[in-house]
Design goal:
Its EC number is 2.7.7.108. The chain is 58% helix and 3% strand. With 377 residues, the chain is an all-alpha fold. It folds into two domains: 26-279, Fido-like domain (Fic-like fold, Orthogonal Bundle), CATH 1.10.3290; 299-374, Arc Repressor Mutant, subunit A.
């Protein structure tokens, strides 16, 4: 739509798409494969001794990757160290943005027990995401009241790749989106989730944080629609690997109404990410049993304490000797000895190179979740 000031903004038609999405042929096969992959993932996660520990790491992996799409530098190790209050002078300044993503995710998952996915929830999530970080001055939780645009650095409204709806149209566009979230238009649930994400990104209701909130929405909807028992499907990994295509597919919906192209891309992401997470769940079980056996064989009388430390490492994967001492209520010398022996079997790896104030990471576990470029030599 043309504005009185001379620029053109895009106002999306309400969902579901008209003409309807063509779900025949290859798209139907993809949808079937995606539903099957999600079902396998759900089953695999529920075989884990404590599925919530798997959720713990997946939330953090998603936080890192979704934030990296927006330009942050922090790694999974940076985030875990910051959460454990083990601050390193080399930690990127943007680690707080990633920590906020974790907080926003956990806030949203907790709120789903009482509040459906809605404009109200979306605004709450944005508040958590933007609190106290760059862009935090841009009214956390408040819909934008000025025109925004998307494009290369230095572009103007006239040269932007995409100009989202003018601010006075945003409340109605979100209201229409909320209505579709609740009634679904008779479409399969996974298709609904894909359409909602694309529509949210097109509405672009905030001055900052739209990409991250839109990706959080995917997780909330998968959980609310009971496509997964536990929230362990995070598509940011796939979107980051295929970042250019991700943006191109969203833009093709706006330019040409190519919903089918976007859906094919989205469902391929669900299939790939589900299979990867299923394999990770199986790898966690193998790793856990393998190290249980190693601890029993190699730690002798200290084996019971070794097992206790490993159990705690699943949700505290970066530790100091003082942490281990506190967990086991033993002497500093005893804690140092346990840590050294766990380091000896490869369960822990020292990451500072310091003689004092050393920190250790739960090496075999973190390697299952990290991107190759994030792994330390």
């Amino acid at each position: 739509m043309s504005q009185s000031t001379g620029y053109r903004a895009f106002l999306p038609a309400p969902l579901p798409p008209d003409p309807p999405v063509d779900l025949d042929g290859a798209l139907r096969d993809r949808l079937s494969a995606a539903d099957y992959a999600l079902g396998r993932l759900d089953g695999a996660v529920l075989t884990l001794p404590n599925p919530d520990l798997f959720v713990f790491m997946y939330v953090r992996k998603e936080a890192v990757l979704s934030s990296q799409i927006e330009g942050t530098q922090s790694s999974l190790q940076n985030l875990l160290a910051a959460e454990a209050h083990l601050f390193d002078p080399d930690t990127p300044k943007d680690v707080q943005e990633v920590a906020n993503y974790v907080r926003a995710m956990n806030h949203g998952l907790a709120r789903l027990a009482k509040l459906p996915v809605s404009v109200r929830l979306i605004r709450e999530i944005h508040t958590e995401l933007m609190r106290g970080v760059r862009g935090g001055r841009l009214q956390p939780g408040e819909l934008r009241t000025s025109q925004d645009w998307i494009g290369p650095a230095g572009c103007t409204l006239a040269t932007a790749t995409f100009v989202p709806p003018p601010p006075h149209e945003v409340p109605q566009a979100l209201s229409d989106l909320e209505r579709f979230i609740h009634d679904g238009g008779g479409l399969p649930p996974l298709v609904q989730v894909a359409l909602v994400h694309a529509q949210f990104e097109t509405i672009h209701p905030f001055l900052d944080g739209n990409g991250r909130v839109g990706r959080l929405l995917i997780t909330f909807l998968l959980t609310e629609k009971r496509l997964l028992t536990k929230p362990v499907l995070y598509l940011s990994h796939y979107f980051k690997q295929h970042r250019a295509e991700y943006y191109d597919r969203l833009q093709a919906v706006r330019d040409a109404g190519d919903w089918e192209g976007w859906l094919a891309f989205f469902l391929d992401g669900v299939i790939a990410t589900s299979r990867e997470a299923t394999a990770t769940a199986a790898a966690i079980l193998r790793m856990r049993e393998g190290y249980r056996a190693k601890i029993t064989e190699r730690l002798g009388r200290a084996a019971a304490n070794g097992q206790r430390v490993m159990d705690r490492l699943f949700d505290h994967p970066i530790v100091s000797v003082a942490t281990v001492r506190e967990w086991l209520d033993i002497t500093p010398a005893g804690a140092n000895q346990i840590v050294a022996r766990l380091e000896g079997i490869g369960l822990l790896r020292e990451i500072t190179g310091y003689a004092r104030n050393r920190r250790f990471r739960f090496e075999p576990y973190l390697r299952l979740f990290e991107e190759p470029q994030d792994m330390q030599p």
